[in-house]
Write the C-alpha cells for this entry.
Amino acid sequence: MTRQRLPGSARPDTLDWVRAIASHGGSAIDFELPNELALVQETARAFARDHLRPRDREFESARGVAAHVHRLYRELGLASLELPDTLGGAGLGALARTLVNEELAAADAGAALALDPLGPALYPLVAFGGDTALRTHALPLLERAGSRAVLAFDLLPRLQTLGGRASGILPWVTADHVDLLVVLERERAYVVSEGLHPTPLRGAALRAAGAAELRVDGVARPADWVSTPRARWALSHARLYVASLLVGVMRAAAEFSRSYAMERVAFGRPIAHHQALAFLISDMASAVDGARLLVQEAAWRLDQAADLADEPDIDSEAEVCATAFLEAAEASLFVTPNGVQILGGHGFMQDYPVEKWMREARALSLLLGGIDAAREDAGRALLGDAEPLALDPVSPGSEAGARQ
Amino acid sequence: MNFAVDDPTRERLRQIRELGKTYMRPLGIEADRLGRPTPPDDPFFKLLVQLGLGRTRWSGGPATDAAALRAHSGGGSRSVAVLAEEMSYWDRGIAVAFPGPGLGEPPVLGMGTTDQQQRFLEPFRQPDRPRWAAFAMTEPGAGSDVAGIRTSARREGNFYVLNGAKSFAANASRADWIVVFATVDPSLGREGHRAFVVERGTPGLGDFQVEHKMGLKAYESTSFTLKNCRVPAANLLGGEEHYARRAGFKGAMQSFNATRPTIAAMAVGMGRAALDESLRFAREHGLLRESRARDRLERIRRRLRAARLLCWRAAWLADLRRPNMLEASMAKAVAPAVALEAATFGMDLLGEVGGRGDHLVEKLFRDVKAMDIVEGTGQIQRIVMARQLVNLPRDGVS
C-alpha cells in the first residue's frame, strides 16, 4: 500500500522503563505552601483586592497611599513581615516575602513600595548589622507612619565616599521623600540618614510610591560593613523582593487580558477563541508560572541556606536569585506589553490598567542594576560550573566524551 | 514547600548515572552513527533484565479499577519525572528501547480483564530474556487527531478481522504483542475505538518497516500493516462489555495527566545534556570569557530550570490526583522548545565543528526535535491549555 507521510504526532514512547525503576516512596518535591505561609498569602491577597486594586489610579495621581490603608497594612503585620520576632516582627523569610509582594503588586506595585517603610533596604541592615542595626535604623521608621527607606545598589558607583561622607546623585529612587538611604555595593554597605535631598520627578511608573532624583551629601555610617558574602546575601534578597513584584504585575496583566479576551467579540467569536490569541494567552500563562516558580524556588533555597552567623556561603543561591530576577524581568516584559496588545486600542488608554502594568514592569526591572547586572551575575556563575543543573550535584562530572 | 530530590530517588539517580555513562550514551551514539536501532540481542538489554528491569508493574492479582489506577501513577510521578530527565540526559533513544511491556501495559492494566492481564503480563513478571510489548495508535493519516484512525475491526464469529496500517510504533517489530487501536465504525469517532492485543505471528500482521528517523535512532519506530488479520475475540481488551460500560461515561474527561510532565522532563534532560556539552566546549575553547556566549548559556540554564519546575509541579499535582491538565500541557509546551533552543545554540557555539556531524550536540539537536511532537505537539498542548484558560471550544481543529 502507499505510505503517505502526513505531519502528525508519533505516539508517545514507552515510559515504563523509567516507571519500573522509580521509587515508590513519596518524593520530597512539594509545591504545597505550609499553612502559615498560605495564611500570609491569603491575608495579603484580600488586603490588596479590597484596599489597593480599587484605588490604584487614585494612589497614582496622589503619589501616595491613603493613611488608613497604611494603618491597616501595619495592623496586618505586613510592615514587619521579615523583622525578627525578637524585634516584634513576624520573623518570616524570603518565601513569605515573595508571596506577599506578588499579591500586593498584582493589585498595585507602586502602593506595595509606598506601604513598605523598609522595602529591600532591610536586607543590608540584617546582613551587616543584625539586630543592632535594625534597632537603630529600622524600628524608628516602623514607628513613624509613611516613613521610607530606599535601597541603592550602587554598582558604578554613583556615590563617592570620601572622609566618611557620601556624596553624589542617584538619578531615580522610588520615593518622594527619603528618611533612610541604604547603599549596597559588591563588597560593602553603608547607611546615610541625613543630607538626603530629593527632587520629585514625574516618574515612568510606580508613582504611588513617589519618584525623585536624590542628591546625597551626608555622613556614611558605619565604615566597617565590608563583606562580599553578606553583600551578596543582601542583593539576593533584594532581587527576590523586586522579582516577586514583577511576578505580581505580570500576573495581573495576564489575568486581566485573558478575561477581557473572553468577553470581547471580533469576527464572530470571543477574540480568545482565535488561535493566534488563544496560543498567546497560553504562552503568557506559561511565562508567569515559570517565573513565579523560579522566584519561589530561589526564595526557598535562600531560606534553607542562609545562616548569617558566619560569612554565608551562598554563591549558588545568589546565582539562582539573579536568575529568578532575570526571568521575572524578561517574562514581565513579554507578558505586560502583550496585555496591552490584547486590549488593542483600549489597552493604550488609561481607562484600563494594562498600560500601567506595562510601565511598572519596565520600571521595576530597572532596579538593582536591572537586567544586565543580573545577567552578568548569573552568567559568571557558569564559569566554575561543569554541570549547572545536575540533579545530583554531589556526583563527579560527566566523563563521557563529547566527540562521538 | 520543598524543591529537593528525596534520598531514594537520589540513590536511583546515581545508578542511572553509572548506567548512562557506561552504556546508554555510548549505545545511543553508536546507533546514531550506524543509523539503526540497537538490536534486541544487545548484551545491554540482557544486563537490564538481570538487574531486574524490564518487568511489568502488574502485581499478579485480580485488578480493581482503583488498583489499576494506582498502578498507573502511584505516588511516584515526581520521581518518574526526575529519573526520566536523568535517563534522557544520557540518551533518550536507548531509554525508549529498554525492554518491558512499555506503552502496551497501561491499556492492558486499565482495560484488560484479569484473564487478559494474566495472559499478556505474566511473561513480563520474571522475564527469562528481554521482552518487549508495543502500542499502536498513530496511522499514516491520523496523528494528533486520534479520532481519525481508519484501521477497521469487523466481528466474524469468535474473531475480529483487522485491516489497516499503523505508524511509528516504538519497539513494535521486536514486541511479543502490540496493543492495536481500531475502529468498528469511523463515524463514531473515539466511541468506535477498540483496543486489541495482536500477538506476534498472527497471520495478516506484517510489513514491519523500521523507519529512518532524523534522530533518536537507538529505538525502533516501526510501521506495519494488518491485512485481514484475524484476532481472537478474547484479545479485545476488556471485552465488549467494557466499551458498553464506557459509553455511559461519554464526555467524562480525565482530569490529570502524568505522562506529559514525564515527556517534558525528558526534554529537560536532553536540553541539559546540550547545555553541559556546550559549556564544556566553550570552556575548552576559551569562549566563556565573552559575555555574549555566557549570556546565551545563562538563558538556556535559566529556561531549563524553569521548565524543570513546571514538570515537577505538574507531576506533583498528578501524584495528589489533582486536576493538572493546564500544568501538564504547560510543561509539555515549554520544555521541548527550551531543549531545542539549548541544542540550537550549542551548535552556534561549536560553529563549524557542529557542521562536522560527529559532535554530541549535533546529535541532540536532531534528537530533541521529536519531543515537541510526541505525546501531543506543542500546538496541541496550547489548545489544551486554551481550553482551560479561555474555554476554547472543541470545534474544528481543536
About this structure: Residues 1-27, 395-404 of chain A have pLDDT under 50 and may be disordered. Residues 228-384 of chain A form a domain with the Butyryl-CoA Dehydrogenase, subunit A; domain 3 fold (CATH 1.20.140.10). Chain A has three domains: 34-116, 147-226, 228-384.
